[in-house]
Amino acid sequence: MITREYYSKNKEKILQKAKEYRENNKERVKEIKKAEYQRNKSKYRARYDKYFKIWLSIIIEYFGAIKCQNVGCGYNKNFAALDFHHPDAKRTEVAMFIRQKPTVGRIEELKKCKIFCRNCHAEIHYPHMDLNLLLIKENNNGK
Questions:
Q1: pLDDT digits (tens, 9 = 90+) for 2-12
Q2: Residue 56 and residue 66 in contact, taking contact as beta carbons nearer than 8 Å
Q3: How open is the CA angle 112-52-77, to the nearest 5 degrees?
Q4: Is the dihedral of CA 90, 94, 99, 101 positive or negative?
Q5: Which residues are within 8 A (CB) of 104 and not within 5 positions of it... i.e. 6 or more apart?
Q6: Taking a C-beta distance cutoff of 8 angstroms, is the pair 85, 113 a contact?
Q7: What does the alpha-carbon distance between residue 93 and residue 110 come to, in Å, rounded to a whole number?
């Protein structure tokens, strides 16, 4: 058993060894985490539900409504069909925030986003896949 005194004196060393173990035993760590989740599923679910409700109130407070912000769309039927579009494409973890405890930093990142339904979000990220453009190209290649 590690005492507080020992831990405080050797904290860096202990954390480094734990990090090395996780890096060298990724599959084992994954199995342990999965088993721990299965044993405590209801606890994790309750925490997720609690954070989700808090996030919903934050989203409503900031955005006014939970719906697609694309002009002419306004989809608002199912939260799972809505995405948070961050202007910095590298910041894709914003959607994962609703599973975590709200923090000032996470809320600030969320405020930089726009809400789009999955279809509108796909059109923003993949304009080159527009069927009208693809079909026109295909018809022109066939002539």
A1: 788 998 899 99
A2: yes
A3: 80
A4: positive
A5: none
A6: yes
A7: 10
